[in-house]
Amino acid sequence: MAFTRTATGKHRRPRKTGIRTGVNIAGITTVASGVVAGIAGQAFAADAGPASQDTGLTQAIEIGDGIAEHIEAQAQSQETAAAQAAAKAKAEAVARQEAARKAEAAAKKAKAERDAKLRAAREAERRRLNTFVAPISGSYISTAYQASSGLWSSGTHTGIDFHASSGTPVHSVGSGEVVEAGWGGAYGNNVVIKMNDGTYTQYGHLSSIGVSVGQKVTPGQQIGLSGATGNVTGPHLHFEARTSADYGSDIDPVAYLRSHGVNV
């Protein structure tokens, strides 16, 4: 005999299904509540968020502004420093230019002064070389030109005599070149100088001679010492002015000296 059994397997829902369903319903409710709570939390966070986020943003803006101000201050400081450096460099360049200008002006002035002194010295030397002096300082004429006497071979005096004791310095009356220096017969020890103007001067009866032929002499230069050599009656200086080195070409020595500014 066969028995029929109703299957209670997985094809039929257990009786406690309703309980589990209730639990599930409760879970769904809990989940829903959680969702609502989550949504409410998000809403709350959304409501509270702006204030919190605004506080952070303000701080960020304040920090950003501080950094920007610091950077701007640094930039301004650097710009000021650069401007000051440029101004200093420009001032130094101007100072160097001014110093160079002053140095150049000073150099030009110094050169002009040196040139002026040099010209003055040359002019003074030129005047000195063209100046005539007396053959013996502080003396006087003891025998005139063309005085008559048997003491001279020509019968007249061909020069002038200056009073002088032996050993008195004798000077060239001007600039020239010595053409004779030695014994001159009746003139004793004598010196003849060709002057720069082409005339000749003679100095006779010297006790000593201090120059030699070919030597250049200047006004006032000592050429010997007075004496009493040759045809004389006592110590003195015989001075002649001539147009040539030869005897007989004599000219008035007083007029000659005076024409060159020497009063005797």
UniProtKB/TrEMBL annotation:
<protein>
    <submittedName>
        <fullName>Peptidase</fullName>
    </submittedName>
</protein>
<dbReference type="Pfam" id="PF01551">
    <property type="entry name" value="Peptidase_M23"/>
</dbReference>
<keyword id="KW-0175">Coiled coil</keyword>
<keyword id="KW-0812">Transmembrane</keyword>
<feature type="transmembrane region" description="Helical">
    <location>
        <begin position="21"/>
        <end position="45"/>
    </location>
</feature>
<dbReference type="InterPro" id="IPR050570">
    <property type="entry name" value="Cell_wall_metabolism_enzyme"/>
</dbReference>
<keyword id="KW-1133">Transmembrane helix</keyword>
<dbReference type="InterPro" id="IPR011055">
    <property type="entry name" value="Dup_hybrid_motif"/>
</dbReference>
<feature type="domain" description="M23ase beta-sheet core">
    <location>
        <begin position="156"/>
        <end position="247"/>
    </location>
</feature>
<feature type="coiled-coil region">
    <location>
        <begin position="95"/>
        <end position="127"/>
    </location>
</feature>
<dbReference type="InterPro" id="IPR016047">
    <property type="entry name" value="M23ase_b-sheet_dom"/>
</dbReference>
<keyword id="KW-0472">Membrane</keyword>
